[in-house]
Design brief:
101 residues; 7 strands; three-stranded antiparallel beta sheet; 8% helix; single chain; mainly beta; four-stranded antiparallel beta sheet; 1 helix
Length: 101
Amino acid sequence: MGNLVVDSCHSRWVFDAARRRFRRIPKGPGLEPVMAHMTEWRPYAELHLDPDSDSFVVVLNEAGTRMLRSWRHRGGVCPQCGAARTEELAVTAVTAAEAPA
């Protein structure tokens, strides 16, 4: 099972479903991921991707009382942030973000 990568307007989210953990890579002014600010791996209990609204929810604990909610960034003109471009990212940068610790 590989990692799932989800782009929001402000971050690239990498989910390691096999180990139930995720990390975020904040994006800079041009919407490019800033690898130097990548978070550590953090555990999560569930991930809910809503195909109708492009929202997603990361449930952080088994009780479901701690959650993070965001929206997937779309190419073209994103309805969430208004950005009119998408970024290009080298395969090596994505691989480095996905690498298990």
